[in-house]
Amino acid sequence: MAGPDALITTGPIPETLLHEFEQLELSPYEARVLLALLRLGSANTAHLARHSGVPRTSTYQVLEELNRKGLAQRLSVEGPAVWASPGRQEVFDRLDAAQEERLRQHRARTANLRDLLAREFPEAPDAAGPYVHVIQGAAQVSSIYDRLLAEVQEELLVFNRAPYSFPPDRVNAAVVDAMRRGVTSRVLYEGPHWRAPAAEGFREAMAVYHDAGVEGRLVDELPIKLALADRKLVLLAMTDPVLPDIGFPTTLLVEHPGFAALQAEAFERMWESATPVEQRAENGHRPGPVRLTPVAPVAPVAPGAPGAPTAE
Fold first, then answer.
1. Which fold has domain 4-118?
2. pTM to 2 decimal places
3. What span, in angstroms and rounded, lies between the C-alpha atoms of 138 and 164?
4. In sequence order, what are the residues at sequence separation of 6 or more whose Cβ sits closer than 8 angstroms to the Cβ of residue 310?
5. How many CB atoms are closer than 10 A to CB 36?
6. Residues 6 or more apart in contact with residue 117 via CB below 8 angstroms
7. Residue 133 has what pLDDT?
8. How far is CA 75 from CA 4, 80, 117, in A?
């Protein structure tokens, strides 16, 4: 005939129950003994050890810890110690209370740490995103330059030099639009290229900008191609030092006030010694009409985004 224990419980304790109780800040042994106690209602240490699978030498210590937490209670009986569960609802109420106490202590520590941090480091630095972006491909460079032109508010400074990625008779309508908005613009060109007979179409296109209010001057040489918007945002393209005629394989967008100030200072120094561009053609008349390329509306570029605003 089966003993009373066999009538009360059958099979091992499900692992899922053990796992869930362990998530409530109970050790594996504590979870096993507590589940055995909930299953049996009350039992002595030997029975709990057998049903929980916890070594008997460890079961007594586990029961003492569960008693301290209010999850088990020792009955006043003669003979071997008998342990009982306070009841399922009481067990869960005490587990909830313990968790709430841990949360209260955690919040108290967090508040204390916040105060300590404020005393040690009074001012937290602003979060800073990347301020240097590498721009790939002529299409992306052109798109970013158009965005720069659409967003510039006060001043545009440009180092304009060959080689170019567009036909020499093309005029970017975004430049004209910027001038109509009140933006001031100054451009430095390379004198040898400007005076070359083959650059007639280029000079005609630039005359459209000059008519719109862009000031132009000539220097002997420009080290890079550059556009500087509002002395805050710099778009610069650099030639390959070994193969300078292949274009501008490296283009950078830099959002850094110190770097922008340095580029602006370099521009101003070169501008002071540059020669003003002759605004009229050799025959005394304006050049003929040139092709005006409209620019589709572009979405504003958020600071820090690689799609934000070189001279093409």
1. Arc Repressor Mutant, subunit A (1.10.10)
2. 0.52
3. 10
4. 141, 144, 145, 225, 226, 227, 235, 236, 237, 248, 251
5. 23
6. none
7. 87
8. 19, 10, 50
Q: Looking at this protein, which amino acid is placed at residue 121?
A: F
Residue 252, token pair as written in the block: 């950078």
Bridge-based pairing of strands 155-160 and 184-190 is parallel
Beta-bridge mates of residue 216: 187
Q: In the chain, where does the domain assigned CATH 3.30.870.10 lie? A: 132-293
The pLDDT of residue 5: 42
Q: Is 231 left (phi over 0), alpha (psi -120 to 50) or beta?
A: left
- How many residues does this entry show for the chain? 312
Give the chain's radius of gyration (CA, Å).
Answer: 40
AA letter at 59: T
- For residues 216 and 193, what is the distance between their CA atoms, to the nearest angstrom? 14
Look-up of token digits 């209260």? 104
- DSSP annotation of 199 reads G
**What phi, psi does 261 have (nearest 5°)?**
-65, -40
Cα separation, 36 vs 75, in Å, equals: 16
Find out whether 213 and 184 touch, Cβ atoms under 8 Å: yes
pLDDT at 297: 39
Contact 47, 5 (CB under 8 A): yes
What is the fold of 132-293? Endonuclease; Chain A (3.30.870)
The CATH 1.10.10.10 portion of the chain extends over 4-118
Per-residue pLDDT tens over the stretch 32-43: 999 999 999 889
Place of tokens 């059958």: 10
- Residues 75 and 83 sit within 8 Å (Cβ to Cβ): yes
**Tokens read off for 151:** 């967003």
Joined together, the tokens standing for residue 279 give 């605004």
Low-confidence ranges of the chain (pLDDT < 50): 1-8, 10, 280-312
pLDDT tens digits along 110-132: 999 988 888 887 665 555 557 88
- Helix/strand/coil for 114: helix
